[in-house]
């Protein structure tokens, strides 16, 4: 392919033409080349630092996990209207729900059941004997309605459904999830 250079403008024009249009053959400006090569170097550096290195402060995994936990907590909190045994057990495995339940427990329940949930005036909540029923909803309903013969106050109007569910989740977090959370024949119930 031959080239023709105009003497006045120093523009190189290629000899071929397509549809009567001729093509210029010029070098790209240096500022464009520097920007292009700089962007390529920056992209390799960025890829290595943000996606390949395990340096602290750059890794988004902890932030992602905390955000997912917050979303899960919000989802569980919104499910209070459809509360069942499975939902309470799921809540008992969510760190944020358990932390909220612990705050409410310490403020309202620890005076009778002890800070370690091992009883005192109230019953032991961490042993394998569940006096008032084998299901998670039995705990929830007991906290909500109380049990006057043993001196357990009615917490429903005071705490509300959400806080009662969180306290129940906190108590359940000290127990292993049963194979069938909805089964009525748990070995650790006592009637």
What does this protein structure show overall?
The chain is mainly α and 191 residues long. The protein folds into 2 domains: 50 residues, no CATH class; 112 residues, Cytochrome c-like domain (Cytochrome Bc1 Complex, Chain D, domain 2), CATH 1.10.760. The chain is 49% helix and 7% strand. It is built from 7 helices and 3 strands; from the N terminus they run βββααααααα. The protein has a 3-stranded antiparallel sheet, with no helix packed on it. β1 and β2 form a beta hairpin. α3 crosses α7, α4 packs across α7 and α6 runs antiparallel to α7. The protein is rod-shaped and about 110 Å long. The N and C termini lie far apart (99 Å).
In short:
With 191 residues, the protein is mainly alpha-helical.
List the helices and strands and how they pair.
Layout: E1 3-5, E2 12-18, E3 21-24, H1 30-52, H2 61-78, H3 85-91, H4 95-108, H5 110-113, H6 136-145, H7 156-172
Antiparallel strand pairs: 1-2, 2-3
Helix pairs in contact: 3-7, 4-7, 6-7
Fraction of residues in helices? 40-55%
**Which residue ranges are poorly predicted, with pLDDT under 50 across at least 5 consecutive positions?**
185-191
Placed side by side, the strands forming the largest sheet appear as 1-2-3
SS elements, strand count: 3
What is the strand content? 5-15%
Shape label: rod-shaped
Element order: H for helix, E for strand: EEEHHHHHHH
End-to-end Cα distance, whole Å, is 99 Å
What structural class results from the helix and strand content? mainly alpha
CATH overall fold name of the largest domain = Cytochrome Bc1 Complex, Chain D, domain 2
Mean pLDDT: 82
Query: Main sheet?
Result: 3 strands, antiparallel
Number of domains: 2
Q: Can you identify the CATH class of the largest domain?
A: Mainly Alpha
Helix count equals 7
**CATH homology superfamily name of the largest domain:** Cytochrome c-like domain
CATH architecture type of the largest domain: Orthogonal Bundle
Query: Rg, please?
Result: 34 Å
């Amino acid at each position: 392919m031959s080239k023709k250079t105009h003497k006045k403008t120093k523009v190189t024009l290629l000899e071929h033409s397509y549809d009567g249009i001729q093509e210029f053959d010029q070098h790209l400006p240096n500022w464009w080349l520097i920007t292009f090569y700089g962007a390529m170097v920056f992209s390799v550096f960025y890829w290595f630092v943000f996606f390949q290195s395990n340096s602290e402060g750059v890794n988004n995994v902890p932030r992602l996990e905390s955000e997912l936990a917050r979303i899960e907590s919000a989802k569980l909190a919104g499910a209070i209207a459809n509360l069942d045994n499975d939902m309470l057990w799921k809540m008992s495995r969510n760190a944020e729900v358990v932390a909220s339940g612990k705050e409410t427990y310490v403020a309202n329940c620890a005076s009778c059941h002890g800070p370690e949930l091992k009883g005192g005036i109230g019953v032991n909540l961490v042993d394998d004997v569940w006096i008032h029923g084998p299901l998670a909803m039995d705990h929830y309903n007991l906290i909500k309605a109380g049990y006057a013969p043993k001196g357990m106050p009615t917490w429903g109007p005071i705490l509300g459904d959400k806080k009662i569910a969180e306290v129940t989740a906190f108590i359940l977090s000290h127990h292993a999830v049963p194979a069938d959370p909805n089964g009525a024949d748990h070995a650790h119930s006592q009637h």
